[in-house]
Amino acid sequence: MKELTSSFEEGNLILAIETSCDETSAAVIAEGHKVLSNVIASQITTHQIFGGVVPEIASRKHMESITAVVDRALQEAQCTWSDITAIAVTKGPGLVGALLVGVAYAKGVAMAREIPLVGVHHIEGHIYANFLQKPQLEFPLLCLVVSGGHTHLIHLIDHGKMKIIGSTRDDAAGEAYDKIARALGLGYPGGPLIEKIAQEGDPARYDLPRAWLKDSYDFSFSGLKSAVLNMLNRAKLKGEEIDKASLAAAFQNSVVDVLVEKTCDAAKELQVPTVLLAGGVAANNYLRQRLQKALQGQGQELIVPPLELCTDNAAMIGCAGYYRLQKGERAGSDLNGQANLPLTDS
Amino acid sequence: MHKEIGQGLLPDEEATRAFGQWLAQHMKKGDIILLYGDLGAGKTTLVQGLLTSLGYGGAVTSPTFTLVHEYEADLPVFHFDLYRLTEPDQVWDIGWADYLKGEGLLCVEWPERLGHLKPLEALSIKLEPVEMSNGQIGRQVELTGVEESAQAIVREWKKACTCLD
């Protein structure tokens, strides 16, 4: 088998593929930063091209839609296969069956077209959603990654050189939002629904805990979740009415207080001029505003990706892949999807 | 069909963790634990205790969003949360057939989602919040086994509880 080591040149056009969880996504990125297309299958309204199937959860669904999604990405970018100069694909973490669909497809195309291939860590992709907008960002940086599956504080020293300085010990922040929304009967996804109803509530009405986990940048949200659920259970047992808006506001305050304080402390200690926000929860306005204000207060700047690049998408994978390709990194035919892939230097 | 049922009270999170540790010592490759209980009932806490006891030192986080987390402990553990599934057949899409090959211990949150695919040989554990006499909220735990191997674990649990009394 031919090794995928051909050169990576200027004027490059990267095809990026992301299939780590629910979304099947493909994007075409020019020169590492220009998003020519970014197709996300579960958000496409014209279901017909997928035979009426909207991808969800399944690796089988990824398999059914990947060809159509990639074709659509090429079409929207107004290019053909022969224009593509490299492939970037999410190699983990995620659902192993789902990851394998993207990885196998990427390997096949890279081999057939004899172009370079690179594997990208999903979280690194989220971080690089920021570089899509601001390629001129200077290291060192600090990034708060908050999503349904992840909550991390990451110190970015250089491209491909990063250190996780804090993580959740139980639930991810986005997951806590979803679970509380579920318990309050608000629906799914929980983030936007809690944020909306919280605007009409008084956060001071309910006293909820905050897990500070002293001397650590780690997070914990399961204690807060239990406190809210216990409050709801008690009220139910005693036949008391719960002010949902105020409880949602108090819950959101608890989560955001901890996220903001830990991020500010870390930013101060590491003396980074700029802090990045990434992941699905970065779409939360309340978090954006509070974090921006707090960082401003200590002379630091917050960068936030545009909403459509916060949730899972292939464009961010293309951007992260670009820097790895530039450093000469190439994946071989042995590239594999890894469910528990740790975020490490390379 | 005969069922072996055992009950107990877990007064706090530490007790739930300790119960998980006890369970770990009685499970082997290919075993399946179905974990019933509402949000915040302590399902993930129980799995955390179980993994500590199996020598896993890393973080054990909830798999709600990711559906399954895999841990390489003394006994490989596959921790599922099926809440997001809308019909039983969707488990085939996340590789259920492979996980049933018996390469590790399966801990499954929200097993209701499995419907008719629920494995009969599994040990079922139900966790439910209860108000205790001191006003604190504890967890009522119920173990159920249908097939012999699961029944044996329930009997072991009952024995262990009697010893504690």
- Most extensive interface: pair and counts? A-B, 36 and 27 residues
For this entry, what is the oligomeric state of its chains?
heterodimer
For the largest sheet of chain B, list the strands in their spatial order: 1-7-6-2-5-4-3
Averaged pLDDT of chain A, please?
90
- Overall shape of chain B: it is globular
The helix tally of chain B amounts to 5
Low-confidence stretches of chain A: 1-6, 43-55
Largest sheet of chain B: 7 strands, mixed
Can you give the mean pLDDT of chain B? 91
Give the number of DSSP strands of chain B. Answer: 7
Span of the ends, CA to CA of chain A: 25 Å
The percent of residues in helical segments of chain A reads 25-40%
Strand order of the largest sheet of chain A: 3-2-1-4-5
Q: What pattern of helices and strands is seen along the backbone of chain A?
A: EEEHEHEHEEEHHHHEHEH
Straight-line distance between termini of chain B? 30 Å
Low-confidence stretches of chain B: none
| Coarse morphology of chain A | globular
Helix and strand content put the structural class of chain A at alpha/beta
Number of helices of chain A: 9
Q: SSE order of chain B, as H and E?
A: EHEHEEHHEEEH
Describe the main β-sheet of chain A briefly: 5 strands, mixed
